[in-house]
Amino acid sequence: MDTRDLHDPELLPLIDNMPRFAWSDATLPTIRETFAALQPEPAPLPDGVRVEEIMIPGCPGEPDVRALRFTPPGTPRGLLLHFHGGGMVMGSPEGSRDRNAALCAQLGVSVLAPAYRLSPEHRAPAAVMDGLAALLFAAQDTPLDRIVVSGDSAGGLMAISTVAAARAHLPGEIALLHLVYPMLDPATGGPDCRALPTSGEFIWTRQSNRYGWDAYLNRIDPVAAHVPSALMDVSDFPPVWIGTGSLDLFFAENLAFAARLAGAGVSLDMNVYSGAPHAFNIMAEAAVTQRFSRDYSEALERVFGS
């Protein structure tokens, strides 16, 4: 289905200029290099913000986890644990460096951004074990009600799965799950795909999603891998904020997950941005991105203050 004309006009340069690939193990190195090259040079850090690379102790039997830690001037008001996107097969915390530094300054919080293990080199649940190690590390020095776990796309998968895996290890719940067009359902892109016909023509498609999930799971039971769509019980989840686009491949699965949360009595805010595909917020000056950015920040300010 041709959906170009359904997109917000300000976002057309994004969908017209984004490279398209045939995803496979053979092409993945080139895809990673291409997307890494698209990252802009990092901006100067805001006044008083410090960033350092640290190593987080891994879970028993697992390797240590590299992470970037952003520290504000003064005593932090809390901690934002942020997982980058990339379909579970690419990306790094450096890709979100500028935004995390800005949030550190704006909110007066520490930001911890792990470099979780990627697939296909490391299959599920390796990445979630890295996420769990990062959350347990954060909880050593920060009260749970001052921790937000956030993630974009595959980082949303990581955020949800990490919180689910941590339920057996933490004495309570975090303050907020903060999700941007989260990747939730291995069925999307396959024969049982329930995505809307208007979604996923551009940026992150059915084919790329199929590759990402296959590389990550490699026939591992989704329940054992803490896959969000396979979680049996979400009733004890913390409050959740979701921001997604109406043309995102993940729109239908985001709606379904939101319905499960609301049906279980979980506090939920969901924001849908009309005419927006996956990764639309790359276009920082577009009006729809400005609305998204305001909502994104306000959800965090309700926890941490401004």
Structure description:
The structure is a single chain. This protein is of the alpha/beta class. The protein has one domain: Alpha/Beta hydrolase fold, catalytic domain (Rossmann fold), CATH 3.40.50. The chain is built from eight helices and eight strands. It has helices at residues 12-17, 28-37, 97-107, 126-139, 154-166, 206-217, 251-263, 287-304, and strands at residues 50-56, 65-71, 79-83, 110-114, 147-152, 176-180, 240-245, 268-273. An eight-stranded mixed β-sheet has the order 1-2-4-3-5-6-7-8, sandwiched between helices. The mean pLDDT is 97.
Write a brief structural summary.
The chain is α/β, with parallel strands linked by helices and 306 residues long. It is 32% helix and 15% strand.
Annotation keywords:
alpha/beta; Rossmann fold; 32% helix; 15% strand
CATH topology call? Rossmann fold
Task: From the alpha carbons, calculate the radius of gyration and give it in angstroms.
Answer: 18 Å
Q: How many strands in all?
A: 8
Distance between the termini: 43 Å
Shape: globular
- Largest beta sheet: strand ordering: 1-2-4-3-5-6-7-8
Task: Determine the strand fraction and express it as a percent band.
Answer: 15-25%
Low-confidence stretches: none
CATH architecture: 3-Layer(aba) Sandwich
Number of helices: 8
By CATH reckoning, the class would read Alpha Beta
Task: Give the proportion of residues in helices.
Answer: 25-40%
Estimated structural class: alpha/beta
**Domain unit count:** 1
Order of helices and strands: HHEEEHEHEHEHEHEH
Q: Characterize the biggest β-sheet.
A: 8 strands, mixed
Q: Which homologous superfamily in CATH is the superfamily? A: Alpha/Beta hydrolase fold, catalytic domain
Overall pLDDT level: 97
